[in-house]
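User: I'm new to structure prediction. If I give you an amino acid sequence, what do you actually give back? Let's try with this one:
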Amino acid sequence: MVALDLVHPPTPIGPEARLKARNEEFEIFSTELPAASDRYILVGDLNCTPWSPYFQKLLQNGEFLDSTDGYGLQPTWPAVSALSHGLLRPKKFSGAVLPIDHCLVSRNIKTVERRVLEPVGSDHLPFVVKLALI
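Assistant: Good question. You get back a string of structure tokens that encode the predicted 3D arrangement of the chain. For your 134 residues, that looks like this:
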């Protein structure tokens, strides 16, 4: 069995309570999913970059591997389409610069392919990850 968790914790921008809630969700990610199955995938808009200490903690405890390993930096936010349609400000932004959409996997799952796709109308760029059980 493979446990799949689709997540979207709160953005850290705004009231301090929102930041606290997001950080508490990261604590849950690091314990509950690995306890649910020996194979697991955590995917979604984590509202943090790979440099966040909360993201790094997920990797440092050895429970998760980052699917971008070996595939380079893959920014997904903000999508150019969202900027050009006035969904986000400032309009002078040139394209996706932050990698905040992630796919983390257990050590017994291998990333076979990972790439960012063309804009589809969201404020995030979609990405595809092909995985294999090992």
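You can read the tokens as a compact description of the fold. Here is one thing that stands out. The chain has a mean pLDDT of 87.
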